[in-house]
Amino acid sequence: MSFFLILPHYIIWHYSQGLIDLKNIWRNFIVFFYEFFSIPTLILTLFSPWRRIQDTHAHDFSFDGIAGAIVVNTLMRIVGAVVRLVFIVLGIICVICTAVSGLAVLLVWITMPFVLIYTITTGLSLLIS
Questions:
Q1: Rounded to an integer, what distance in angstroms lies between the CA atom of residue 7 and that of residue 12?
Q2: CB atoms < 10 A from the CB of 46, how many?
Q3: Structural contact between residues 14 and 93, judged by C-beta atoms closer than 8 angstroms
């Protein structure tokens, strides 16, 4: 009997404070993945050399030294850009998957009391008949 007294309070909480808490948790997950992958920082440093690996040419200004430094620095910037692009794409995919998952959880959250009431009434009707 006490279950039926708790049910109205649960439904009021479920559609008021429960939805607010669900929104906050959903937002925290999205912010976490956005910050975890450091998407703004990766975009700002997209063409920086990978792991700050750079070659300085020799002070004698030889063609081999300058050309070698240009090739190494260009390759390290390309490697840095490719690795950063991979992490930017992974971060965006995680943020999108979190947003879509949050919509699915929201749909389940909204329909759950109806499913609960349906299963209880179906179970009781099958028990009685």
A1: 9
A2: 13
A3: no
